[in-house]
Amino acid sequence: MKNYNHIFLDLDKTLWDFTANTIDTFQDLFEVFDLKNKGIESAELFHETYEVINEHLWNQYRQGLIEKDYLSLQRYILTLKEFGIADAALSENLSKEYLRLSPLKTKLIPGTHDVLEYLKEKYTLHIITNGFNEVQYVKIKQSGLDVYFDKVITSQEAGYNKPNENIFYYALNEAGATATESLMIGDDIDVDIRGASKAGIDQVFVNFENIKHDFTPTFEVFSLFELMNIL
Asked: Which residues are CB-contacts of 112 (< 8 A; sequence separation ≥ 6)?
């Protein structure tokens, strides 16, 4: 085991339960905006349709092909369009309300607090997240995660999105760390793990869904609790 000093962690889907919190938020949106009476059968269908569109737009955003503001609004315009709804004002209101409500949700991946308490005693901890400042900082504070981290690096601040290695270089510089003394922990093999590898940083792939992949990370675990066995 190398002598690591700095540990960088992904936020969404690694610590903050993005899926559960998003589903809860979409239930709120469905009710607040009375979407059933606008022709959308259920919050579940609304969310499922949105997820496909959102992932496509996020892939474009990560590649630098679209801007933040375009992504934030267009995902609702396109989702409503799938239900035959053309309503610019509703799209804008959904976008604003999602960005307000979503970070207030506090469901975490099992083991988050226990593992962070354990790691905090041994390492300096940081976050590297693809996300918007006004959302990610609220998530961290609301979920009680702020007490664990020395630095929080967002893609908006860095000017680069994971897996671009430049966000990792930026994070190292912000943390006053070197690649050789650092470790990246994340749930996305392409975004977190390959990205960190390109920057010369060792990685732990938290493979929650036991997916098959063709990349060999430094370490691979299948739950957060397993991190305490290797660190």
From this structure: 15, 16, 145, 224
| Contacts with 49 (C-beta within 8 Å, 6 or more apart), sequence order | 79, 82, 83
pLDDT by residue (tens digit) across 143-159? 999 999 999 999 999 99
Q: Is residue 123 a contact partner of residue 7, using CB atoms and an 8 Å limit?
A: yes
In the chain, the number of structural domains is 2
Q: Is residue 133 in some structural domain?
A: yes
Under a CB-based contact definition with an 8 Å cutoff, are residues 203 and 192 in contact?
A: yes
pLDDT in tens, 16-60: 999 999 999 999 999 999 999 999 999 999 999 999 999 999 999
Question: Is 70 a member of any domain?
Answer: yes
pTM of the model: 0.92
Spatial distance between the Cα atoms of 229 and 222, rounded to a whole number of angstroms: 12
Query: What DSSP state is assigned to residue 147?
Result: G
Q: How far is CA 16 from CA 59, 98, 102, in A?
A: 20, 16, 11
Do 116 and 89 lie in a common domain? no
